[in-house]
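Quick start: read one record
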Amino acid sequence: MRTLEFRAMGCHMLAALDRDDAEADAQLAAVPEWFEEWEQQLSRFRPDSDLMRMNVAGGVRNAPPALWAVVRSALQAARESAGLVQPTLLDALVAAGYDRTFAKLAPERSARVQPAATADWRAIKLDAKSHSITLPAGVHLDLGGVAKGWAADQAARRLADSGPALIDAGGDIAVSGPMADGATWPIAIANPLVPDASLGNIMLVRGAVATSGRDYRRWQKGGVAQHHIIDPRTGQPAQTDVLTATIIAADGPTAEVAAKVALILGSRAGMAWLEERPTLAGLLVLEDGRVLQSHRMDIYLEAPMA
């Protein structure tokens, strides 16, 4: 097993290739370059990124490949989540105080929190022939978690040509297939209430795992606790009893979106939403310390929880 750790998209990244030779090292060495290319297209924290230039111009013709693919994925996510996860929340994030990378974010912001109106994602126009994206006036996109899930998937698929691969993009994990000996990949479920502790292992053959939470990216603004998961129904950080949501799905964007939906909806409605979707499995850690899991989660757990 060869691994490479690096930083990209504001997160700690891990790339793993289950083989031991010089070619594996060479393949892994290319992974940070892939993420740099994608980040230059997709980051809202780079003023010169393709995303931010599009936000300023109100659209783009001949969108570069990653931007085109992720905007399409984000709009699909909005449709499938009935708008609970949508890409038009940049202004709401900025209004909540998340106006710079988290590493540069002051723990206390003095201004009062003003709810931000969320734009209608359905008014975004795509032209598949010219790869054009047209934004309504005043609409600005943040591709956030969908971009990370997409990038993890893409990197795992590229590495799979050289052997079984795993990508961990700051909690968005993609697995290309079983390990070289046919075994499943063990993926620890972090306990948000106990630093460095695990709630157990997910045993995954292929697919994706994503965790959304309000345990890490949080801050104070005007004396009010804030976090980065916006409820588009209010334009403010979601009010929910779910601290973290971990979801298993066939691909990264689907897992990422489902984790956010489950968190935004809260434990009761979020778990019901998961149970209605037989391709998903999920585990929710609640603010009071309880851990809930969907019925399909037992398939993936190393040892089913009591």
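The two ends are 33 Å apart (CA to CA).
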